[in-house]
Amino acid sequence: MQAIFKKEINQFFSGITGYVAIILFLLANGLFLFVFPDTSLLDTGYANLDPLFDLAPLLYLLLIPAITMRSFADEFKTGTMELLSTKPLSGWEVVLGKFFSSLLIVIISLLPTIIYYFAIRQLSVNPSLLDNGGIIGAYIGLILLGAAFTAIGIWASSITSNAMVAFLVAVFTCFIFYNGFDALSKIPALQGGADYYLQMAGIKFHYLSVSRGVIDSRDVIYFCSITGLMLYLTKLSLQRKIWQNG
């Protein structure tokens, strides 16, 4: 797994695509949080990072699929997946190596946003009033969200040899998991009954819960379950493709 992990990290940062994806993510955050008046932290009148934590999941919908889309798609396209399957590596080692390398890149892209915390702290009249616990909880929520989206992106890349198709499938699936269930719960016919359970089935419900600074074990279990399920589906997809090619 360690060899796969290092290979993926080196491959991502050996080209310009990885840097462009991260730079665009940070640039979009900077524009929305400090330039555009409707979302600017400077115009809210409150010293908090809520706009960041509201915006980041939407940007993740594009960033993470861009990071993961080549994980397996390029392996199938170039034929190196067959070579990889002959190595003394289990299916889980391959999947987890790809997953953790992509997740690390997601976390690396998130680290520079800590600068925003210090900027807000400097601008605050009374820095001691900052909700540090809530901010830490929200960052934990972003990492859990990133793990779930990364697992979905890895799965999408395992079902096709076309990286662009993998990107589009990942964006659509992440959107459905994040916002689809919440949107369905607002259908009038479902009000007062199934709406609450539909909300609970979606990622947005649990992300918002964690981003308030309250780390509930049920939310953590939910994110771990979604991540584990998508990684398991990835392993099944790889086994099917290797069996078909064999």
TrEMBL record:
Main subcellular location: membrane
Gene Ontology MF annotations: ABC-type transporter activity
Entries under InterPro entries matching the protein: ABC-2_transporter_component (IPR051449), Motility-assoc_ABC_perm_GldF (IPR019860)
Compartments reported by the entry: Cell membrane
Cellular-component GO terms for this entry: plasma membrane
Annotated TM spans: 12-35, 94-118, 138-156, 163-181
Protein name as it appears in the record: Protein involved in gliding motility GldF
